[in-house]
Amino acid sequence: MKIFLILGAINGFLAVALGAFGTHGLEGKISEKAIGTWNTAVTYQMFHTVALLVTGLIGMKFQSGSLATAGWLFLIGIIIFSGSLYIYSTTSIKTFAMITPLGGLAFLIGWILLGYAVMKFL
User: Fold this and answer.
1) Residue 110: helix, strand or coil by DSSP?
2) Fewer Cβ within 10 Å of end Cβ, the chain: N or C?
3) Distance, CA of 79 to chain centre
């Protein structure tokens, strides 16, 4: 479960850096709507960074397959959901926006599994 703590720290750093880049580096270069999309990606990345950290912390006390799966789904969700929105907001290629819901689905299943693990062990 230590891996989820490490991944959480990395993603926290990336979310802050990408948020700052969106605010300072993209201003005037992409539309306001695209900036909003970028900010949505940052927000979801940060929320799910916290989920990774919580998963890692709980996992250090309780070993669970559903907990580990939840952590991996949070990471996959960050990559697909936030990653596709980062690319879409800077390129306007709609294909990237069309795969975003797959990342959202990974987030949803991750939350269900995290909730299941919490109910089972705590």
Assistant:
1) helix
2) C
3) 7
